[in-house]
Amino acid sequence: MPIENKAPGKDVSDADMIDKFPLAAKKHPDHRSRFAVQGVEFGGDLVPIFAGPNMVESEALIVETARSVKASGAHFLRGGAFKPLSFPYRSEKYTETREDGLAWLKIAREAAGIPIITEVMEERFVDAVADVADILQIGARNMQNFPLLTRVAKTGKPVMLKRHFGCSLRDWLGAAEYILIEGNPRVILCERGVATAHTHRSSSRFLLDLQVVPAAHEVTHLPVVTDPSHATFWRPWVKPMALASIAAGADGVMLEVHPDPDNAAVDPLQPIDFDAFGQLMDDMDAVAKAVGRRVK
Amino acid sequence: MPIENKAPGKDVSDADMIDKFPLAAKKHPDHRSRFAVQGVEFGGDLVPIFAGPNMVESEALIVETARSVKASGAHFLRGGAFKPLSFPYRSEKYTETREDGLAWLKIAREAAGIPIITEVMEERFVDAVADVADILQIGARNMQNFPLLTRVAKTGKPVMLKRHFGCSLRDWLGAAEYILIEGNPRVILCERGVATAHTHRSSSRFLLDLQVVPAAHEVTHLPVVTDPSHATFWRPWVKPMALASIAAGADGVMLEVHPDPDNAAVDPLQPIDFDAFGQLMDDMDAVAKAVGRRVK
Amino acid sequence: MPIENKAPGKDVSDADMIDKFPLAAKKHPDHRSRFAVQGVEFGGDLVPIFAGPNMVESEALIVETARSVKASGAHFLRGGAFKPLSFPYRSEKYTETREDGLAWLKIAREAAGIPIITEVMEERFVDAVADVADILQIGARNMQNFPLLTRVAKTGKPVMLKRHFGCSLRDWLGAAEYILIEGNPRVILCERGVATAHTHRSSSRFLLDLQVVPAAHEVTHLPVVTDPSHATFWRPWVKPMALASIAAGADGVMLEVHPDPDNAAVDPLQPIDFDAFGQLMDDMDAVAKAVGRRVK
Amino acid sequence: MPIENKAPGKDVSDADMIDKFPLAAKKHPDHRSRFAVQGVEFGGDLVPIFAGPNMVESEALIVETARSVKASGAHFLRGGAFKPLSFPYRSEKYTETREDGLAWLKIAREAAGIPIITEVMEERFVDAVADVADILQIGARNMQNFPLLTRVAKTGKPVMLKRHFGCSLRDWLGAAEYILIEGNPRVILCERGVATAHTHRSSSRFLLDLQVVPAAHEVTHLPVVTDPSHATFWRPWVKPMALASIAAGADGVMLEVHPDPDNAAVDPLQPIDFDAFGQLMDDMDAVAKAVGRRVK
């Protein structure tokens, strides 16, 4: 039949789940992966929160933020030492701190007693990042960088795999399979917005796809978290989309938190400040409890 | 500048809100319309629930459903007597009941003591539908059928305006303005899914856009409800997306409820049954309370 | 199978073409509708050209344009007397000329000896428009306004059915079927751009979908034309997309032509002037001949 | 202003072109890069054709294909020795031939006297691929794999940069800039389809975006080619979209050609056979000549 037919009841076989995703696929309807990272459990009733700045701008900034988000109950400190940029040019302000940033993350980790998640963009830095990070993050643009996935998987560290903004759930699970096949079972999926015709603001480039949360849970046992900050690119929408993520069943939420959002080195329209984060932790916990889970 | 630039900080003027949406635009940051329909208040702490079958298949079905959803706490009975179909052909099962359906809705309204929302597709039926309905629904395909909007607005009845699956928030507010300009202030916006590259199931044609809830609240005082059933087209996703809608700040939720979903005359993959609806009312109420609102 | 699978070889039945599109579907591989409108043949080797301003601004403008495009070889004069607007407010410049516009189109038709295509937006104006127009145009926003389609079909006049920017080929053929079922076989499909994530300019809202040309030809015998002006919304792209349309097999091209584009009452970024149109007619004819057809 | 506004006339500055794309941006309106690869000139009146199988399945197959497409006038032989797969599992048939494939390409290159384009997916294989290939191809999934871009750029070999199916023109030019900044000016952009709501067949995953051809030409001096085979994923649409590409101004066309398409190791729905390719060369040449260029 020559034309597109997305009608209900279309008989598509289950072969994909067996052939393409033997490791990511659920084995029974209630199958959910449960694993701990530094004592924080994924896939259970806890909904872990990842909080911190877009970039590790300085030692002072990351240590201050680590202490603050830890005090508010965050489970992981996020922050980028390496940062992909669509263009090869950096402004003076927008500078990757790279090895320095990794060192500062390590200091913040110790100072605040909070585990770290940070992005790794290149194979040659995998070991250096793995030395600091408790979870290695694969950015959206690298979702299908298969050699990098393989290399990261081999570290044995947990991996957060962000969904590319143009890729399907099928593509995403295929990428997860590249990690799982290396014998690394601790894969966390992260939805961070998709490219669509309408995102509602000229400053917003993506739409947070919350439908993918139940859709992923239907087929895979892997935990699914969301990143409302990067998806919405707009501070006022972060709270409602974070709460909606938890209500939709997300197994974690990643949030951009900065001591002085308006002066963030990058993307100043999206981070929330410490007070807003503290309040949001309470609000997220309330919603989590309403759906039988907890943030705190 | 010749290429697309959706970067943060782009300086776009507020002129649109003043020139194009003088009636739909918020006049101050906390501006929210509040109005009652048959004693049910919109825009306040209550999150009204609209429940019922896709189609008014028979008198017995609609009366039974009205009584059941009312008993579970629904605020409005939904059901279509007129039903747009992409093709001019109807199967034996999939038949509009039209004037009969309207009469049965009226009977159900009296029998169960629940107000009615139903779709009107043609100007010539506006009076007949308005005679039965407490809220007139404009379907997604008619969102920009401006003569119909004008005619419906003139009835003075509240209007639910569904967002077309290919239209922007800007288009949607423009359509609302066509109703408001007739002196009819009771307009309810309803998000029911957008066409995107990936909807996660071959049986699912749309993606519920929850980001539009805070986006609409940012610019308009009109209440915004969602329709997870039509958006997802898939029963198991209705609950998580209904809960997420409320957490995102939706001012109402529309749900397809059928006594025997597998044998529904149309779209049998999406309705939930009476028991599931009763349970979902409790779950929605819990989430609503977590965000300072209530369903019951 | 629970996740989206758009893989090659998916076995989808041909039932749709028989059940949903019995009139629009091709009956054999070479099946193409051929019909004449005022002596201009559709579906043959000729590629008819529709040219004129977005709006019938004045009698002088439309008569001047009619003579000019006719002299350059255009087959139909296009121009809107009625014009859908996303908002109910009109600037002083952007005013529909309505009945006056229809009268001026009639004058232009006689003065230049060129048949007319113009849009009809409301059932109540169908007769008035049909009195002037040789082809009745259904705008994208009304593609699924089924009562309007039925009413227009009953005039017996040829109908150009524009594709909605959010609708599928399947939806489009379904709408065509509503016209065909009234016994009106002269339906012309018109692609005018789809809403997508990226349109390449902030001033451009749509992407001209040329892939739909062979896709439609594969399943339907109806002629398919394109409208590069509305799709691209950007004058410099009109010529390449018009030429590409013909190379892709389009059975006609609609172009916005204005004596003074920069001062057009609406959408001044998209029309081309008389000289550019004259040159484009030559260029289109050259491409048409390269693919075994002709514009002149 | 809080809502999306893609209206005409929006005043967006040209700063992007100067700041973000100093090397890719046109310096004057007629600026077009011209460079030769093995004597084949890009950016001039010639429209080079890249033809060959999806995968280098065997020595016999690639040598036979090289000779045939060369005889028909193709300028480059395409074929993958390395092939990205969404899943880590390969069927028996669908096996990368890797180093063997590279060796066979080298043999075919000598046997038929035709230069080679082939994809490089990993930094560690860049030298091996560069030893064989006259042009190094970066696949869509690696468009923003910046370390790979840098590494490939440093070889000094011409680079074909495929556009990711979810990325904007802005993203694409940013990626090109990563190559140009290494002092490698021979960058060829290749459009191969975008993810959209509607692609018209359940077997087709992308829509060939021909609007990007004039859009790219408006801002960059780099040549732009298209790949209708991968975009459409459907043999009958390859010819119309190839012809449309040339009419739209494409500076080259990449085509999948296989001696026995139905038995191709991968994606058997998209390649054309030798006879069809020979005929298409004539047809493309005719369209090219109609727009002042040539294929032969």
UniProtKB/TrEMBL annotation, chains A, B, C, D:
Signal peptide: none
Name this protein carries in UniProt: 3-deoxy-7-phosphoheptulonate synthase
Keywords on record: Transferase
A single GO BP: aromatic amino acid family biosynthetic process
DAHP synthetase I/KDSA domain span: 39-284
Keyword flag Transferase: yes
SUPFAM superfamilies registered for this protein in UniProt: Aldolase
Organism encoding this protein: Denitromonas iodatirespirans
Any one GO MF annotation of this record: 3-deoxy-7-phosphoheptulonate synthase activity
